[in-house]
């Protein structure tokens, strides 16, 4: 007896866009995407070093390109992603550290304060070096 069995229908979870429905995963994916923009910015800086090695004219052309509206827009976007990436990194830091007798918010605030102090010191140091 050759009877045909009906096809068994198994549940298939839809894979497209599942992370957009959960705010936790949305923030996680945004943090991961920010790393791509930071990589792109690092590549822009490496191109600048390459142009500097090619000579004064090539470096001047690269510097001129940095002043275009597209470049400024990309730099602002990279800055926003860098700020978001840094903020979320300092929020994750207390969760990955060994147990400390300090509240996690204090650890994050101390990391952000240290970042701001070091950035200001670097800025002042560069201004006096010129």
How many domains? The number is 1
How can the largest sheet be summarized?
none
CATH topology: the name is 3 helical TM bundles of succinate and fumarate reductases
Number of helices: 4
CATH superfamily: Fumarate reductase/succinate dehydrogenase, transmembrane subunit
**What is the overall shape?**
flat
Can you count the beta strands?
0
CATH class: Mainly Alpha
What portion of residues is helical?
Answer: over 70%
> If classified by CATH, what would the architecture be?
Up-down Bundle
Span between termini: 92 Å
Query: What oligomeric state do the depicted chains represent?
Result: single chain
Structural class: mainly alpha
Element-level helix/strand string: HHHH
Radius of gyration, in angstroms, nearest whole number: 24 Å
Contiguous uncertain segments of 5+ residues: none
Give the averaged pLDDT, no decimals.
Answer: 89
Strand residue content: under 5%
Question: What does it look like?
Answer:
There is one protein chain. The protein is mostly helical and 130 residues long. It has a single domain (22-129), classed as Fumarate reductase/succinate dehydrogenase, transmembrane subunit (3 helical TM bundles of succinate and fumarate reductases, Up-down Bundle), CATH 1.20.1300.10. 75% of the residues lie in helices and 0% in strands. The chain has four helices and no strands. It has helices at residues 23-54, 56-66, 69-96, 104-129. The longest helix is centred in the first third of the chain and has 32 residues, at 23-54. The radius of gyration is 24 Å and the shape is flat.
